Amino acid sequence: MYCAAVLTIRDLKKSHGGRLLFESADLQVNYGERIALTGPNGAGKSTLFSLILKRDEPDGGTVQRDEWTTLGYLPQEAEAVGAESALDIATGRAGELESLEKQLAACEAAGDVSSAAYLEAHAKHEALSNPHVEARAKKMLTGLGYRESDWNRPAKELSGGWVMRAHLARLLVMEPDLLLLDEPTNHLDLLSLLWLQQYLKNCPSALLLISHDLEFMDALIDGVYEISNRKLVRYAGNYSAAIEQRERNYETQLAAWKNQQKEITALQEFADRFRSVSSKAAQAQSKLKQIERMEKIERPEPPKKPFRFRIPQPERGGQRAALLEGVDMSYGNTAVYRGLDLLIERGERVALVGPNGAGKSTLLKILAGAVEFQKGKCTYGSNSKIGYFSQHRAATLDPANSLLDEILGSNGTLREDEARSILGSFLFKRDDIHKKTAVLSGGEKTRLNLVKFLVNPPNLLLMDEPTTHLDIVTVESLVLALEAYEGTLVFISHDVHFIRNLANRVLHINGGQVASYPGGYDYFLEKSGLLGSERFALTAA
C-alpha cells in the first residue's frame, strides 16, 4: 500500500531531564512537504530531531519513516576532523562513502538486503557515486558562497560556518527524501541564505526545519508544527499564517474555557445553596455529579507576543555620526580596504551585507575603534557615544555579576523594579535575575547584552549579528525596540525580516569595495541585480 507520509509520529511521549516534553503528540510530513517545527527554546525541538534520527528512544508512541525513504540531517554545529577539503565533504569522499560501503557490506553479509537501513544506504551511495557528483557539489558550494580557490582547501583551516556549508552542500547533492535542517541559516551570509532559499523552493525533498528566521520560513514552508503544552499543534500555511491561526485558536479555546467556568460556577452555587434543603438536596447532588462528569477544559496559555517597553533616547549627536577618510586596513599581508571613504549620517539605519570574509565585521570594528588601521582617519560627530555589540559579546559580561547587577550597572537611574520588569520582558524568569552571568547560555548572554544596550543606548549603535541565538518572539521584540531608537544604527545581519524592517540604507561590501544603496532592503535587491546573477541561476534543482 502506498503511503503519502515520509514521516509519521503518533501518540509520542518523551521526558528529558525529569521534565515531560511530549505527551500524546502527533506529527506527519508527506512527500514533498515543507514543514517548520517551532516552539520556545527548551521546548523539545532538538529532542524531536534526535527521536526521528533514532539517536534517542521515545517513552511511548511511535516514530516511523516510510521504509523506502532516505534522510539527510544538518546539525547546528560540525567541525572538520582530518585533512579533507570542502569538496571532499560535499562529494562524500570525506568518510561518507566509506561508511556507506561498510554498512552495505554488513547488511549483505547478514543477508539483510531488503531492510530499510540497506535500502537507504544503497540510495545514498548511489547518489554520491554518480559520475556527475563533483559537478553538482561544485554547483552547491558556489551557491553557498564558496570561491573556486577554496574548494580544495583543507577544511580544518576553515571556520565552523564554512564547514557547515560544505556539509549542507553534500545533503543537497544527495537530495534525500526528507531533509532535517536545524537552524541552517545561522552560518550563512545574506546572499548565501537567499540562494539556499531559492534552491530549496525547487528541491523535491520533503523538509522539516527548525529556524528562527521568519522570512526564510515564510518563503519556503507550507505547514507549521508548534510545540505547545507538550503537544504538536499543526497549522496550515506559512509561519505568518500560523501566527494568525494560533491567535484565533487561542480566542476560541479561551471562550470555551470561560463558558465552562461559568457553567461550573452556576452548578456549584446551586449545590452550595440547596444541599441542606431536604426538598432540593437530590437536585444539588445531581449538580455536583454533573460537574464531576464534565470533561474539563484547561485554560489555554496565551501565545507569546513581542513585548514593548520605553527605552531612554540617547543624547542627540552631530549630523555626521562617523566619517572615514582614506582608510587602509590589512591583516598581515591580506588587504581588506584601500583608501576607504565612508560617511554615516545621524539617524541612518545602515545594513552591511556581502559574503562572509568580505570585511563587514572589520568595518564595524573600524567604526567602533576596536582595531587599528594602517592609514587614514575616522572622526565622529559632536556628543558621540559609541556602543559596539560584537559577535564576542559574552566577553563584555562580568562572570561574577548577577543579571540584575549587570542591568543596574548599565543605567544608574534605573530602579530595581524597572530592571526586573525589563528582564522579564526579555524572557528572563523571576528566579533567573540572581543567576551569575557565567552560567548563562549563548542565547541568554545575547539577550542580556541587548537589554544592557537598550536601557542606556549610545547615539551610534554598532551591532554584529544581534539576532544570533534569539527566538522569533525576541527578534521581533528587538525590532520594535530599535524602531523606536532615535540614534544612528549600523548593523550586520542575515535575517531578512530584521533588515527589511530596520534598514534605510544598505552597504554591499565585496572585494574591498563598498557600494551604497540609499534605500531599504527591497531597493537594494532591485538595484544591485544580485538575484539575476549567474550564481542565482544555479538554483534550478
Identify the notable features of this structure and list them briefly.
541 residues; alpha/beta; 6-stranded mixed beta sheet; 22% strand; flat
Overview of the molecule:
Helices cover about 40% and strands about 20% of the residues. It is α/β, with parallel strands linked by helices and about 550 residues long. The longest helix has about 35 residues, at about 240-275. It is flat and about 100 Å long. It starts with a strand and ends in a 13-residue tail after the last helix. About 35% of the residues are buried. The model has no long low-confidence stretch (mean pLDDT about 90).
How do you describe this structure in short?
This protein is an alpha/beta fold and 541 residues long.
Question: What is the secondary structure topology, with strand pairs?
Answer:
Layout: E1 5-16, E2 19-30, E3 34-38, H1 45-52, E4 60-65, E5 71-74, H2 86-91, H3 96-109, H4 116-128, H5 133-143, H6 160-174, E6 178-182, H7 190-202, E7 206-210, H8 214-220, E8 223-228, E9 231-236, H9 239-274, H10 281-293, E10 320-331, E11 334-345, E12 349-353, H11 360-368, E13 375-380, E14 386-389, H12 403-410, H13 416-425, H14 442-455, E15 460-464, H15 472-483, E16 488-492, H16 496-502, E17 505-510, E18 513-517, H17 521-528
Parallel strand pairs: 3-7, 3-8, 5-6, 6-7, 12-16, 12-17, 14-15, 15-16
Antiparallel strand pairs: 1-2, 1-4, 8-9, 10-11, 10-13, 17-18
Helix pairs in contact: 3-4, 5-6, 9-10, 12-13, 12-14
